[in-house]
């Protein structure tokens, strides 16, 4: 569905995207993650054909973003991190305008507006002014505007920013529903636990370069076993004893490291620590998840 | 219906606003009809048109883009599939739709009470429309020059629009064009319509760029060619003393045509300097253009070509044509003006390339004002007639000093382009080619 090759984007004095190449399959829900300044928003703007890259090639649904940006806009929906609404228009007018602006045929327009409002739970608000909506409902209207023309690809930049926990849960459910209907989604967010709820793939950027593009469940299955050691009190010898495992200190009492060799290796390590007099409270495997996968992938790139 | 027009109608034409506007205009004219000696009986409608169609309309037009930027809706519009032309006229006519209702009511009121001649009213309306269109175009150009910065954007755009009206007014003084005499109002109307066409074309092209469409340079080249032909119709020989002396031996008609051609070429040289201010100075875009030129990618190079380069090429062509057709009666006037322009453009670009604020452009404007207005008389007092060789185009002597100035200024520009990363390195060229 999306094919990116050798993508380069420069800002004066700094390269934001540095030779990115990746593919995204149709129907995927891609979590686009990376540290601040990694190039996530720039990548989304290039895919949406809002900014023109200095080099490389982007194809979305077979359309070249550089050659036919206006045609691409017909197939893409984009909710930006900081988006605006026409405050003095009603919700119905906002959706109707977006449908018109995105080329929805006149005969279908009213039905499409009604269906989209239904899908986003906006029907009771259709005749209210957009300026009177609360943050959560504004976010829904923003998403509705991005969906009203039934795009094949939807890009969402920090869609949960500023939402309360209940609204975030509703948003997650909504994105799961949209993904089930076959839309390809790219969602950029720093809230990895929520991304994990609905994402099928993860695309990790750091310093404008691609760190990883993989299926989340496969990546988690293949992840190296991470162990966590918890002490009852601080011990100055412990880091020396774990030196070969490159431990990361979570705090003064907890250390994490990867350990190959399964339970046998864990048992041997425990024996070694106890024999050395380390006050071990607990040694166990940490469950792999998207956040852990992300931290593992970006470690050493920043 | 044009979606942009529809959206603006929803926002602008609420029954309350239309009703209030209609009542306000009706009250003004009712007062004019019932109060003896009311100001509207003289040039009142002209003033009313200036206030409503000009001042209010240009404000709305200049604010069309900053309004979207402030509301963070501009990117959403850029994501639409509305064609650049529909976006351009839908926005321009849409944001001023209430102004147009007020204008129509004003014209109806004038038809009822009389006063100024219709030719004056039409000329004033045309000037006001020019103010609107030029303000809208200026607003789009400022967007390209200043990124997302919106502070003061509307006012600057409106003032630039007013400057376009000023140009049309100054232009309409000669009243004779290719030997045909026009009355003052007809001349103003024709000039306003000509400039409306040019500025509307400019606004359309600027909208295309905003909507990610690519412009080839032919449109700008055509506009400049039209400007050349149009300007050549005016013959201000009497305003250039040395030229008048030079032309006293040729027939009046030839002198008029020669004077017109020389002035037309000089106008295009001036247009290059203006275009150098209006060209976006993004070093990355300049680098991409230079890379495309070096790689021999003709189509891409033309699409990325900065407007001042197109203007420069057209000005050079105009200079050559004018010199050839006038048989050299202008002496070294055009070649030395060309060199002066090369110096000025290089200085403007050196100061503004890579700058993201309007201050750099203001500094360049002040520098040009100093070089052309303040320093020459001062230098003449201090160093005598040699100052003229440094600061003024010369009619009779070979402009060696101006050539040296142009070369030095362009060397400075190349240094600046390298400093801001606008000149490609070999590594970048390879990457781009790949």
From TrEMBL, chain A:
Keyword Cell cycle: no
Pfam families: ABC_tran (PF00005)
TM regions (residue ranges): none
Coiled coil location: none
Nucleotide-binding listed as a keyword: yes
A GO molecular function held by the record: ATP hydrolysis activity
Keywords assigned by UniProt, alphabetized: ATP-binding, Nucleotide-binding, Transport
Signal peptide segment: none
SUPFAM superfamilies: P-loop containing nucleoside triphosphate hydrolases (SSF52540)
Domain of life, per lineage: Bacteria
Residues in ABC transporter domain copies: 2-232
Similarity field: Belongs to the ABC transporter superfamily.
The protein, known as: ABC transporter
Lineage: Bacteria, Pseudomonadati, Pseudomonadota, Alphaproteobacteria, Rhodospirillales
UniProtKB/TrEMBL annotation, chain B:
TM region positions: 20-40, 121-143, 155-173, 185-204, 216-235, 255-278, 308-326, 332-355, 362-383, 395-415
Keyword terms, alphabetized: Membrane, Transmembrane, Transmembrane helix
Taxonomic lineage from the root: Bacteria, Pseudomonadati, Pseudomonadota, Alphaproteobacteria, Rhodospirillales
Residue runs in coiled coils: none
Name recorded for this polypeptide: Uncharacterized protein
Keyword Zinc-finger: no
Entry keyword annotation includes Membrane: yes
């Amino acid at each position: 569905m999306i094919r990116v090759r050798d993508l380069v984007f420069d800002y004066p004095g700094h390269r934001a995207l540095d030779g990115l190449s990746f593919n995204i399959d149709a129907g995927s829900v891609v979590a686009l993650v990376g540290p601040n300044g990694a190039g996530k928003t720039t990548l989304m703007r290039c895919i949406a054909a809002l900014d023109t890259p200095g080099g490389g090639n982007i194809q979305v649904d077979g359309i070249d973003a550089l050659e036919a940006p206006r045609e691409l806009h017909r197939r893409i929906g984009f909710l930006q991190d900081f988006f605006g609404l026409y405050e003095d228009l009603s919700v119905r007018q906002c959706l109707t305008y977006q449908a018109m602006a995105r080329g929805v045929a006149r005969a279908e327009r009213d039905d499409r507006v009604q269906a989209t409002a239904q899908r986003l739970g906006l029907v009771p608000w259709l005749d209210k002014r957009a300026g009177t909506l609360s943050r959560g409902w504004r976010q829904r209207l923003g998403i509705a505007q991005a969906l009203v023309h039934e795009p094949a690809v939807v890009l969402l930049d920090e869609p949960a920013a500023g939402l309360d926990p209940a609204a975030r849960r509703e948003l997650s459910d909504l994105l799961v529903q949209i993904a089930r209907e076959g839309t390809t989604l790219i969602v950029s967010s720093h809230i990895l636990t929520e991304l994990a709820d609905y994402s099928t793939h993860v695309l990790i950027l750091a310093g404008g370069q691609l760190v990883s593009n993989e299926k989340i469940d496969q990546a988690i299955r293949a992840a190296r076993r991470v162990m966590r050691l918890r002490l009852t009190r601080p011990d100055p010898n412990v880091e020396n004893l774990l030196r070969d495992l490159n431990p990361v200190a979570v705090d003064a009492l907890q250390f994490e490291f990867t350990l190959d060799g399964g339970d046998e290796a864990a048992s041997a390590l425990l024996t070694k620590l106890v024999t050395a007099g380390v006050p071990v409270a607990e040694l166990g495997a940490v469950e792999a998840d998207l956040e852990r996968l992300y931290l593992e992938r970006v470690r050493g790139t920043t | 219906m044009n979606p942009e027009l529809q959206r603006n109608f929803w926002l602008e034409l609420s029954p309350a606003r239309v009703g209030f506007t209609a009542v306000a205009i009706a009250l003004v004219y009712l007062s004019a009809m019932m109060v003896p000696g009311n100001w509207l009986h003289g040039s009142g409608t002209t003033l009313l048109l200036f206030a409503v169609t000009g001042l209010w309309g240009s404000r709305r037009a200049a604010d069309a883009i900053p309004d979207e930027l402030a509301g963070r809706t501009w990117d959403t519009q850029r994501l639409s599939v509305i064609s650049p032309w529909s976006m351009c006229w839908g926005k321009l006519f849409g944001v001023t739709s209430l102004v147009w209702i007020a204008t129509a009511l004003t014209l109806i009121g004038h038809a009822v009470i009389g006063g100024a001649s219709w030719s004056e009213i039409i000329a004033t309306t045309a000037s006001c429309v020019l103010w609107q269109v030029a303000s809208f175009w200026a607003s789009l150009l400022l967007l390209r020059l200043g990124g997302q910065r919106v502070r003061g954007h509307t006012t600057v755009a409106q003032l630039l629009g007013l400057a376009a009206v000023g140009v049309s007014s100054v232009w309409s003084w000669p009243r004779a064009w290719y030997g045909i005499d026009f009355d003052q109002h007809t001349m103003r109307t024709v000039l306003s319509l000509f400039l409306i066409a040019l500025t509307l074309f400019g606004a359309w092209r600027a909208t295309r760029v905003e909507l990610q469409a690519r412009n080839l340079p032919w449109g700008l080249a055509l506009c400049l060619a039209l400007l050349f032909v149009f300007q050549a119709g005016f013959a201000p020989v009497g305003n250039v003393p040395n030229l008048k002396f030079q032309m006293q031996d040729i027939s009046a008609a030839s002198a008029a045509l020669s004077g017109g051609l020389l002035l037309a070429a000089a106008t295009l040289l001036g247009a290059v300097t203006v275009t150098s201010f209006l060209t976006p100075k993004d070093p990355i875009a300049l680098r991409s253009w230079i890379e495309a030129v070096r790689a021999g990618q003709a189509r891409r190079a033309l699409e990325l070509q900065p407007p001042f380069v197109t203007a420069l090429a057209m000005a050079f062509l105009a200079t050559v044509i004018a010199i050839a057709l006038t048989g050299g009666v202008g002496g070294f006037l055009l070649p030395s003006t060309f060199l002066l322009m090369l110096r000025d453009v290089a200085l403007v670009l050196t100061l503004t390339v890579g700058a993201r604020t309007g201050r750099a452009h203001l500094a360049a404007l002040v520098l040009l004002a100093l070089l052309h207005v303040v320093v020459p008389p001062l230098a003449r007092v201090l160093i005598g007639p040699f100052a003229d060789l440094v600061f003024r185009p010369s009619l009779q002597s070979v402009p060696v000093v101006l050539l040296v100035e142009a070369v030095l200024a362009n060397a400075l520009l190349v240094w600046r382009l390298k400093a801001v990363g606008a000149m490609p390195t070999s590594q970048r060229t390879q990457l781009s080619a790949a």
